[in-house]
Design goal:
The protein is mostly helical. It folds into three domains: 102 residues, P-loop containing nucleotide triphosphate hydrolases (Rossmann fold); 84 residues; 55 residues, no CATH class. The protein has 14 helices and three strands. Strands 1-2-3 form a three-stranded parallel beta sheet.
Length: 273
């Protein structure tokens, strides 16, 4: 069932999604929870005030909170957060998503639900969702090579989607053979992590795109980044060069879009205003 499914909307109120990531700060998580629930950032700065504010907001309600991508294994931090959440009515739910089974066993009150990996066919379906850029993208040899690459993804949907975005940079058979035979795939098996796939994708990007993505390290993980601001920062620091008389903003916009296609940015939101 999807988070935005109508049945979920009717069953829970409020319905809150918080992206946590590797840096688990209790104050930041509570602030993000309050903001997600009412659309306004809490002005309180100390932990006690934030806990009271969240407690008052959730008191007596049947809420659903999803804490997404949690990595921190410190139970003391979780206890501080649970104190503020122990106030709802019967049927409240807190769902935690994590890649760390140890964390799930520490925090969970019910058996852990392990997501199954995708089949090779499903990975191939996701791969093909990225639009092919050139006419020869569907040549039989290329299709066969890419299907072999999908078998190396380990059933990871994000890996399949991101590799599909790489079609915008690779069109020749020898280029895809290089991707297929890369030794980085061995790291994927050894580390049980998707990071080697992104390393492989990164090193197969054009140099300018790599430099522009590396520039994003000036932001902390989980930060919200304004597209126009990032493009102008890259321009000011000489990361975008003029090509064929095109405006620098247009080139920066193209690089942004291409990095989005390979899922190097998370949860892209469009301003409808």
């Amino acid at each position: 069932m999807d988070f935005n499914d109508e049945r979920v909307k009717h069953h829970f109120d409020p319905k809150i999604w918080v992206y946590v990531s590797q840096y688990f700060d209790v104050k930041m998580v509570i602030n993000a929870t309050i903001e997600s629930a009412n659309g306004k950032r809490c002005k309180a700065v100390d932990l006690d005030s934030l806990q009271r504010r969240l407690h008052d907001m959730l008191k007596g309600k049947r809420y659903l909170i999803v804490l997404d991508d949690v990595w921190d294994e410190d139970p003391d931090k979780w206890d501080a957060l649970k104190y503020s959440l122990a106030c709802g009515s019967k049927g409240v739910s807190v769902i935690i998503t994590t890649r760390l089974e140890k964390f799930a066993s520490i925090m969970g009150t019910i058996p852990t639900h392990r997501l199954s990996f995708l089949s090779d066919e499903d990975c191939w379906f996701l791969f093909k969702q990225r639009p092919f850029r050139r006419r020869n993208e569907e040549l039989p040899n290329l299709v066969a090579i890419r299907k072999e690459i999908m078998k190396k993804c380990g059933g990871e949907p994000l890996a399949a989607k991101s590799l599909g975005g790489l079609t915008r940079f690779k069109s020749e058979e020898n280029e895809w053979i290089y991707v297929m035979e890369s030794e980085i795939w061995n790291l994927l098996q050894d580390q049980n992590s998707i990071l080697p796939v992104f390393r492989l994708i990164y090193f197969n990007l054009p140099l300018e795109s790599r430099r522009c993505f590396a520039y994003c390290t000036i932001f902390t993980k989980g930060s919200s980044i304004e597209k126009e601001d990032l493009i102008h920062l890259r321009m000011a620091n000489g990361y975008i060069s003029c090509k064929g008389g095109r405006e620098l903003e247009d080139i920066g916009d193209q690089i942004w879009n291409e990095l989005c296609w390979i899922s190097f940015f998370k949860d892209v939101e469009k301003d409808e205003g």
